[in-house]
Each structure stands twice: as structure tokens, then as C-alpha cells.
Amino acid sequence: AVAKIQLGEIVLEDKTPTFEYYAKIYLENKEREVSKSTIYKYGLITNKAVAYFHGKEIRDIKVSDVKQWVNQLTCSTRTIREYLIVAKGIFNEAFYDEVIKDNPVKYIKKPRAIKPEIEPFSKDEVKLLMGKAKGDFQNYLAVAFYTGMRSGEILGLKWEDIDFNSNYINIRRTRSGFGEQGLKTTGSYRRVPIFNVLMPYLTKQFQSSGLINKEVFLNQYKRPYKNSTVLNDYFWKTLLRECGISYRRIYNTRHTFATSMLQSGDYSILNISRFLGHSSVQMVIQKYTKFIKSESLEILEEKDIYRQPIDIPNANTPKVGS
After folding, report:
1. What are the φ/ψ torsions at residue 155 (nearest 5 degrees)?
2. Which end of the chain is more exposed for a tag (fewer CB within 10 A), N or C?
3. What confidence tens digit (pLDDT) does each residue in 65-84 have?
4. More confident site: 268 or 319
5. All residues at 6 or more sequence positions from 214 whose CB lies less than 8 Å from its CB, including other chains
6. Which residue, 126, 146, 150, 117, is CA-closest to 232?
7. What mean pLDDT value characterizes the chain?
8. Alpha-helix residue ranges (DSSP H) falling in 7-76
9. Three-class DSSP category at 226
10. Which residues fall within 8 angstroms of residue 269, CB to CB, at 6 or more apart?
11. CA dist list (Å): 67 to 72, 84, 95, 319
12. How confident is the model at residue 37, as a pLDDT?
């Protein structure tokens, strides 16, 4: 089991209620709930927590102990928040068994996460990048810029997912160093339209890989990419230097798609949310508020949403204190 691998040499011959014991239970339960990449990350975090609280009975670990553990961490605010999520889960397992009366992590204030500024590419930058890119990577970027798909989702594409008859791409999976997996959001299988501007790039890509493989994008050895590292480190960074554009993550192609759709005013926030695979429109609103056309947020008080006469009672506006 992954949990055993992550916890290394932890051997539990009895049911001593130590931190290690409940860390093992926590990971084993999480294996059934989250993706392989997430369980790997949780395993690394658990390893470090176990090393710190090694040998301690979980009932003896106080709030102050957890605070000291957090204070000695030298990592980003986002990572510290993830450490606390994992620690809370471990202590919860002991709480459910009634080994502890309360979860000490409840009393630890999470550091405020500073969300990175979204930096979409301008229309001129998109034109420049697409003009300078070559071969399969140009086709890859076209899919990224004109569908808003994540890197792993693009690398997970197979020709059977692309419906040239109805002009839709069916997004069913993602690809990473852990192989093919389900999508990031449970139940977020979705379809995105193939806009006319994207069709020539897909046609070229089919001529490149469609006749020899079921995967859409292949590496130089004509095999599926394991992850997006090579694309980012070699093709993407090289392209940005050639275009004289300062480094931005390749993920910004997704932000560029989202903001361009919002600024066009031609698509509803609901549709854009569905294209991106978000679980709710609220995520789009929170992430891209400043890019939403201001007029779409204006309230027209005189507007009759039912477009029919309504009898309004003839009443004077009440005076304060009357």
C-alpha cells in the first residue's frame, strides 16, 4: 500500500495510540478518497510530521506542541496550510476513536494564503507566441489557448475524445507522472467546443500522430508524454525567450482563455465555468472578477425582468418615525 511506502519503516505491532499509528490509518483511508498524486503529497507531509512527533502518544500532544511544529516549518504559506490539513486529519482519526477529546489543530490559525496574481497573455502576445511556435508544440498551444484545458488534460487526450463531426472535445482524463487518472474535480467530465480557429491545428496534429497512435500528443520517441515537465522546461521557456516575454507558467494559457471569454461578453459565466471544469460559477467569479465586463454586474432598477405590466400599489413612501 502507498501508505506503507510513504511511512517507511513504521511498524505497528500493537495498537499503542501513537501519532504514527493514526498517521498510518489516515493515509490508508485517504488512499480510497484522493488521486495518486495527492496521496503521494500527503505521504510526504505525513513523513515529516511523523518524524517530528515520533514516539509520542497522540493524547499527549498539546496545542502548543502543534504550534511549535508549525513554527519550525520553512515553507510557503500554501504548503503550511496543507500541513495543517493533513495534521488535522490525523488527529481526527484519534478523535473518532475517542482517544482524544478534542483536535488540537482546531486552535491553530491557518496563515492567510496569498493568491498569485493572474497574468493572462494579451492578444498580441498570443499572436506572437503562436507565430513563433513550431510543429506539435504549436498545435499543443492552440489547444491550450482555445480550450482552456489544463496541461495534464491536454496530454491525456486521445483521438477518440475529439469529435470532428459535432466539433467537440470530450475531456475524460488527465496525465501526470502517476499515469492516467480521472479529472481533478470528481464528475467533471466535460465537453468543450472546437472553435473554427482551432480546427486547422487539430488537423495538422492528426497528420502528425493520428495515423500512428491513439494519443494526440507524443514525445520525440513517439510515446505519450509522462508529464508536462519537458514541454515547460524545453519548449515553453525557449519560446518565451525567443518572443522576449518574461516567464509565466504555461498554466497561464488557461487564464488567458478564461479572461478572453469573459471580456468578449459573448459567453455566460455558467458556460465558461463548464468549459473550465469548475464545480461552480462562484470559482470563476472569485478568480476572474476584475476581468468580467462591468456592465454585466450593473443593476438596472427600471428593468422589468418579466417584460409585462405589473400592478404597483399606489402608496406613499413611509416617513422615518411615522
Report:
1. -70, -20
2. C
3. 999 999 999 888 889 999 99
4. 268
5. 158, 159, 160
6. 150
7. 84
8. 19-30, 36-52, 63-71
9. coil
10. 262, 281, 284, 285, 292
11. 9, 10, 19, 56
12. 81
CB neighbours of 4 closer than 8 A, spacing ≥ 6?
10, 24
Angle of CA points 254, 184, 74, to nearest 5°: 85
DSSP 175-209: EETTEEE--SSTT--EEEE--TTTHHHHHHHIIII
Cell 504550534 -> residue: 67
Q: How far apart are CA 309 and CA 132, in angstroms?
A: 58
Set of cell numbers at residue 138 = 504549436
What size, in residues, is the chain? 322
Three-state SS at 215: strand
- pLDDT of residue 173 exceeding 70: yes
Query: In the structure grid, which three cell numbers stand for residue 159, read together?
Result: 483521438
